[in-house]
């Protein structure tokens, strides 16, 4: 408790600023102010008996959790799965992924103060919990330990940069990691870094994202989008971040032939209008996916302003440039593109997905470029070489298939936790 005291005091002092930031974000995305009470541990819906709790902070973690959630529903057919999030887009993603599954509940995880954490645990009474990737909340995990709710850190990844940040608070980090009942790390390097910070019971389980199966309805949607586009070559800029779109649009305007189409999908939906304005400012005729209209012959940019359709966008594209990697954001998931068989071009900044990016390069499933300009040129070169493009696509599918199995290994760890809890 003494180790967590400064952290808790900082949270108390920062709470007014956190609320101001929430209100500021709600100016662009009003959904941030919905279900506000949940962020303080107050829940209106009645919790069912037998809840398995999975925390997935936002969109990427929620998509990564999909195969695990489906496996949990199959393994414990009499239980419900509660998905908690911190962002409206994460919550919306869970609605999209599990719209036909009544046993999947969703809520916001409260802010990390002990009173809120205990209120959350009292309301839902989870049998055990799963926290995705690197979401470490000291007070929440302490409350879980006190209430004998075992928690597993699943799909855990820890870059060298993140490990250095956690190492600045060695006592708090070690205490938090030791509160976990199990850790399933993506790679041996992740496991080593976690162990060096004080973690125990670390097992290398692999990356859950390899177990995501491209949904046939989305693949069919991708085929329909492609039919609407026609024979034009399609470059996909996937999950782009602020500052990257301008660079990619400039490179596209300079180098792409007139018949090429740029399918541009920003990472954050609140930026759709901003990105549309960037294209218009460069004189590039733009259409929106949400308009669901016939493709104009003069359209140069199709803005992917929809949620939950990334597999469809990959299926409609000839080559994908992965966002988050052109400026130092750390990259985005490239596994979905590989699974669909879309050749991938990545930038220099992939530290959040270092192992996956390097393995994909070695497997011939991805090409790396030094900046957005070089990336656009590499993608355009692939467009003119069908044989090479087919070779990279086949390598991507093989790469995605070879690394599957993390879900089964993670469920095995959770099964052992549930048995120990019941004993």
Which terms would index this structure?
2 domains, Glycos_transf_N, membrane, 3-deoxy-D-manno-octulosonic acid transferase, Rossmann fold, 423 residues, alpha/beta, seven-stranded parallel beta sheet, cell membrane, single chain
Radius of gyration: 22 Å
Give the C-level CATH assignment of the largest domain.
Alpha Beta
Give the overall form. Answer: globular
Q: Main β-sheet, in a few words?
A: 7 strands, parallel
The helix-and-strand class reads alpha/beta
Helix content: 40-55%
Number of strands: 14
Average predicted local confidence, pLDDT: 95
Tally of helical segments? 17
Organism: Thauera phenylacetica B4P
Catalytic activity: lipid IVA (E. coli) + CMP-3-deoxy-beta-D-manno-octulosonate = alpha-Kdo-(2->6)-lipid IVA (E. coli) + CMP + H(+)
Function: Involved in lipopolysaccharide (LPS) biosynthesis. Catalyzes the transfer of 3-deoxy-D-manno-octulosonate (Kdo) residue(s) from CMP-Kdo to lipid IV(A), the tetraacyldisaccharide-1,4'-bisphosphate precursor of lipid A.
Pathway: Bacterial outer membrane biogenesis; LPS core biosynthesis
């Amino acid at each position: 408790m003494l180790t967590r005291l400064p952290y808790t005091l900082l949270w108390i002092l920062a709470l007014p600023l956190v609320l101001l930031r929430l209100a500021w974000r709600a100016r662009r995305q009003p959904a941030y102010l919905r279900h506000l009470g949940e962020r303080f541990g107050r829940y209106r819906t009645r919790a069912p008996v037998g809840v398995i709790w999975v925390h997935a902070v936002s969109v990427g973690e929620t998509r990564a959790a999909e195969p695990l959630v489906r496996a949990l529903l199959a393994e414990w057919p009499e239980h419900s799965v509660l998905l908690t999030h911190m962002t409206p887009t994460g919550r919306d993603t869970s609605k999209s992924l599990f719209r036909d599954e009544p046993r999947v509940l969703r809520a916001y995880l409260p802010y990390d103060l002990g009173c809120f954490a205990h209120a959350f645990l009292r309301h839902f009474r989870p049998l055990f919990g799963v926290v995705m990737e690197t979401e470490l909340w000291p007070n929440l995990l302490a409350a879980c330990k006190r209430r004998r709710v075992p928690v597993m850190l699943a799909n855990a990844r820890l870059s060298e940069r993140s490990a250095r940040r956690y190492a600045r608070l060695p006592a708090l980090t070690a205490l938090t990691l030791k509160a976990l009942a199990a850790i399933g790390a993506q790679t041996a390097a992740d496991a080593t870094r976690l162990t060096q910070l004080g973690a125990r019971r670390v097992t290398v389980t692999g990356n859950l994202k390899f177990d995501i199966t491209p949904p046939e309805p989305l693949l069919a949607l991708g085929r329909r989008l492609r039919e609407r586009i026609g024979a034009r070559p399609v470059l996909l800029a996937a999950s782009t971040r602020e500052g990257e779109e301008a660079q990619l649009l400039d490179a596209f305007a300079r180098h792409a032939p007139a018949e090429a189409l740029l399918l541009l999908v920003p990472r954050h939906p609140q930026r759709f209008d901003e990105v549309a304005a960037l294209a218009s400012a460069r004189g590039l005729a733009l259409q929106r996916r949400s308009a669901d209209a016939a493709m104009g012959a003069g359209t140069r940019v199709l803005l992917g302003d929809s949620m939950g359709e990334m597999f469809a966008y990959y299926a409609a594209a000839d080559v994908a440039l992965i966002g988050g990697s052109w400026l130092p954001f750390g990259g985005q998931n490239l596994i979905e593109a590989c699974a669909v068989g879309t050749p991938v071009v990545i930038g220099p900044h992939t530290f959040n997905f270092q192992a996956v990016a390097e393995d994909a390069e070695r497997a011939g499933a991805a090409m790396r470029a030094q900046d957005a300009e070089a990336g656009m040129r590499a993608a355009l070169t692939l467009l003119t070489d069908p044989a090479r493009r087919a070779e990279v696509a086949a390598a991507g599918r093989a790469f995605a298939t070879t690394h599957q199995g993390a879900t089964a290994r993670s469920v095995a760890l959770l099964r052992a936790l549930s048995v120990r809890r019941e004993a």
